[in-house]
Known about the structure:
By secondary structure, the protein is α/β, with parallel strands linked by helices. The protein has a single domain, classed as SGNH hydrolase (Rossmann fold), CATH 3.40.50.1110. It has helices at residues 3-20, 81-88, 133-151, 154-161, 172-179, 187-190, 193-213, 231-237, 246-269, 280-289, 338-349, 362-367, and strands at residues 36-40, 165-169, 218-222, 274-278, 298-302, 328-330, 357-358. It has a 5-stranded mixed sheet. Strands 5-6 form a two-stranded parallel ribbon. Helix 1 (3-20) packs across helix 11, helix 3 (133-151) crosses helix 4 (154-161) and helix 3 (133-151) packs parallel to helix 7. The protein is globular and about 60 Å long.
Amino acid sequence: MNSEQKRWLIMSLVATIFLSNSSCYNVHGSPQVPCYFIFGDSLVDNGNNNQMASMARADYLPYGIDFSRGSTGRFSNGKTVVDVMTELLGFDDYIQPYSNASGSEILRGVNYASAAAGIRDETGQQLGARISFGGQVNHYVTTVSHIVRILGNVDSAANHLKQCIFSIGLGSNDYLNNYFMTDYYDTSHRYNAKQYANILIRQYAKQIRILYNYGARKFVFNGIGPIGCSPNVLAEHSQDGSTCVAKINSANQMFNRRLVSLVDNFNRNLPNAKFTYINNYAIFLDLIIHPHKFGFKVTNSGCCGVGRNNGQITCLPFQTPCENRNNYIFWDAFHPTEAASTVVGWRSYNAASPSDVYPIDIRRLAQL
């Protein structure tokens, strides 16, 4: 093992041990920011879909098998990336889902994420109920009105919100559960990949401006990961079950490049706001290409699920998952294990490589 591999492995092991043995970092102090607002899909949903008429739910075992609170609706065996980030930012508890958040606890942030959600309203409709990006932003606007009442006036609310971090991670479903699902959607017939990426970015930017107009100032844009390498896509489209599907990854990268440009645009043109981009594509691809650097052994199948390479269906209720979960990058057909989320969260917070983030990592964003 060369020195670079040793360095990455040590970093990963330290982060994993540190996170797994502490429910928070800043037990005896204040968090680095007063609040953390989360918008996204199943990668970060922590319970908003639990009461919905939806096939996109994870409120049953074995989901949450390694989580201290059990099956909460997280699409993981344990923590998600935003749970890891919450700990790194020093919060003394995880951010509540919008479906449960109430009273003064909304002052510390809300998780609006919804499994199967997309930037486009119709995305994921074949799975049933879900809350699109636009719906999540509407819920945030409602939350702001409550914050104004709690703090007493608009100025106090604005001063509070400008210090918070706003994390946005959508777009995966707009490809997996829209553009490349031709049996249900016609978007791939109406738009080529470049046109579709442009449309998504315009809709994305529209929602971001609403968040800005309602007090958001510190933004984290999470790029789409290499979903052409997920167990589901490998099972459905890869000839050998292990080679990533270039067509899908290429489309994702088109979106990500435009998201980086949007960061530049907004940093220039939205006063007093700061935007940064997390390069989930590069970070996650590093795990897949160099798994042994991070202690992983299985890259092309999920720890639970059925079908070829455990890639066609997510965890079935009360299914027995693999025992060596820390060896797997993927928990089910789409979602990372807690072990993988820990590495991604750590590198998002404290960039280990200049390519991990643009222009700054979340640690530095919190300090601004």
